[in-house]
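Work Package 3 (structural annotation) set out to generate three-dimensional models for the target panel prioritized at the project kickoff. During this period the team completed the workflow that converts sequence records into discrete structure tokens, so that structures can be stored uniformly alongside our sequence database. As a representative example, we reproduce one entry of 470 residues exactly as it appears in the project archive.
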Amino acid sequence: MTDKRKISGSDLQSMLMFGLILLFFLGVIFAYYLMLHSETRLRIEKTSELIATTAAEQIKSYLAYGRDTLEMACHTLDAMLREKRSQSEIKDFLVSQSASVANITLGNATGSYGLFNGEYLDGTGWVPDADFVPEDRPWYIDAHASRGQVTVVDPYLDLQTNTTTISFAKRLCDKRSVAALDFSLRPLQTITEELSLQSGSIEIVLDRKYHVIAHSRKSEVGKNYMADQGSLGNAIVNALRSSGKRVFSLRFGRAAYIVNTAPLAEHWCCISVFDATADFVQLNDILVFTILASFLVFSVLLFIMIRFNRRTRLAQQLREKAERATAANEAKSSFLSNMSHEIRTPINAVLGLNEMVLRESNETSVIEYSEGIRTAGNTLLGLINDILDFSKIEAGKMKIVPADYDLSTLINDLVNMIRTRADHKELLLRPDFDENIPQRLHGDDVRIKQVITNILTNAVKYTEKGSVTF
């Protein structure tokens, strides 16, 4: 008998089948996970693109306003230079222009100034130090480098207002004079902070040298992300320079970011950074939970299948044992039936010869011996008949043979058969019969006699003293 702890071939087949199904199911789960991951990433990219575009448009609009304001002022100044207006007239225009721009921009523009006919004039009333050299200032140098186009000078900290400021500058028609206009970057800071509050993103505006012009976290303003090693800003700049893409992914520490960039004039850049860690962690948690649940479900199903296979094999073994037992029982019954017939034949011959001895012998001792032989032979014949009947019952060959019989004869035979046994145990046999029972009945008197004989024999056998009533 095989050890139940050993894995059978059918169990291995079940495990292999379930393993293949599990692999297929896990493949479907992983494909669905990749689809959800891609959709989540695309959704975040679209959102960040919208925010970055919105920020870029607002910043472009603000810068365009400064550029257009300077262009209009330069148009008037060019006319004044051609008409050879006096320096005092030019300064009066700068003063009026500065007041007008400051009023329109709510103080975000500090005023117009420049170098005209070799003299520095300032519309805000600011008087430079004696060592101030306009030709060395970035607004003057960049304006000449731009060859008559409005240029945006890199941001600097205005000591008068203590705010980060940019300058718009342009060379005038005489190719020596330069007009400039300062604009505060506070509106850019406001734009980044408001968009960050609306979307939850990090909004950054960088100049061409990767200085932070505006940042949704105000403490970052003024930093140089190229030199700020180990920071998120430095990681964003490095990824931006290496990928060359407008949209890219970035891992910093344990966080995952989606970065979307929008170019601005003067090689500036507006950047929207979305922290996608929570979204991707949720997807990963769902994936892990689904995989664990799948393993659990398939393990339970595999356990049930193995138990079912073992129960099936056990049931098959039991059926085979039952079939073998039935076959053995049939063989036994057949053997008993055949042997009963074979044994009964010589017993009948012995009893027949013994009857001849009883009839012909006159010797008392011989007759006593013959009586013993007859009693023992009848008993043995009864046992053989019982074995034969039992074998017939087991083999399903027992048949009832009904016929008319005389009841008084049947009762007389039963009483005579049992009385001998009762007398041997000194018991009294009391027959008690209803006088209204018919004398002739129909049935199998042989089987009826067997049943009643067994009952009366047991009654005599288990009665120690007294009487047995039939």
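Residues 411 and 449 are 9 Å apart (CA to CA).
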